[in-house]
Amino acid sequence: MRILVTICARGGSKGIPGKNIKPLNDVPLIAYTIRVAQEFAKLYNADIAISTDDAQIKNVACEYGILTEYVRPEQLATDSAGKIDTILDLLLYQESNVGQTYDYLLDLDVTSPLRTLEDIVTAFELLKADEEALNLFSVNNAARNPYFNMVEQKENGYYDLVKREGAILTRQSAPKVYDLNASFYFYKRKFFSQGLKTVFTQHSLIYLMPHLCFDLDHVIDFEFLDFLLSNNKLDFSIWKY
After folding, report:
1. Domain that holds residue 23
2. Residues 162 and 183 in one domain
């Protein structure tokens, strides 16, 4: 069984400039992802590959043990470039280098570091146990529910529930929904052979995080997480140098 761990870290960031290598509790953000990737790789003898268009990111990754000659193509380093295409390009490059095909791919998102090694291992076992599944992604319980308290504009210009199916009068009676936390994604190799462009398929699994996890989209997100880490406010541990 061959596994590739990918870390995609583009240089441009409008919300938080330089966020992939911005210090978080005195450690570059990308280092948290590199560390958990290395721990997972030890368990499964996996390879780790990084996709970036930025020399500074590449240098920082090298400092923490990830050296690569791969350079992300310019067309995959834009705001409009799809993540699946970016991963696939790195996957094909890596397979060409090693001369073998991988069975599974784990993609770790740098900007959502609140995952544990236990999370990743447990999720991987879930995917391996389901022969029909193509992929798996991490989620949290959703704070809002499209069946109960999320609205959208309808064709007549007025607003109504995103999903109106039956008389749902309480949040507890609404169908269960989840938030993608953008932390990690597992794929079977055959996922990439089907020309899929999003993680959503008819055979996707989820891993429900049993703890806090969120993506760093805005400066306040980064400051909040820095506060939690520097003041030891998390009720779980993430890998740190």
Report:
1. 3-140+178-230
2. no
Q: In 123-228, which ranges are E strands?
A: 135-141, 151-153, 159-161, 178-188, 204-208
Structure tokens at 152: 């959208």
Would you state the structure tokens that stand for residue 146, as one six-digit string? 């499209």
Beta strands in the chain (DSSP E): 3-8, 23-24, 27-28, 47-51, 104-109, 135-141, 151-153, 159-161, 178-188, 204-208
Same domain, 12 and 114: yes
- Whole-prediction pTM value? 0.94
How far apart, in whole angstroms, are the C-alpha atoms of residue 61 and residue 45? 20
Do 161 and 57 share a structural domain?
no
DSSP-assigned letter for residue 155: T
Closest CA to 37 of 119, 96, 93: 119
| Structural domain count of the chain | 2
pLDDT per residue as tens digits for the range 98-143: 999 999 999 999 999 999 999 999 999 999 999 999 999 999 999 9
Q: Identify whether 236 is part of a domain.
A: no
172 and 64 within one domain: no
